[in-house]
Amino acid sequence: MQGKRLERVNQLIKEEISLLLMRELKDPRLGFVTVTEVDTSPDLRHARVYVSVLGPEEHWAASIEALGRARGFIWSWLRRHLDLRVTPELDFRADRSMAHAAHIQSILATLRQGEGPPA
Q: Which CATH number fits domain 2-112: 3.40.50.150, 3.40.50.970, 3.30.300.20, 3.90.1640.10?
């Protein structure tokens, strides 16, 4: 039963932060940020929020920094809008799985065309 509840809390936090990013946060350093996953500890005290950013490395760094600086605002938003006994402390982390998958796809496409793998 604990697993299902934790999954619901993760999904709820993900949806609220996504909504917040679309409508409330107006930091110009935030690029096109997407929340890909939330991993909350079983005691609900800590949550790792994985985000993906569209753009070059500079956009990634600026967006992660902006999210880190907005952590308190996001935490208080979650506290007001979620019906949780404990609001977890947030830790924003880069999720580079999409870029990694795109790189693998480009290597496979190159191999299918008969060329060698890219350097």
A: 3.30.300.20
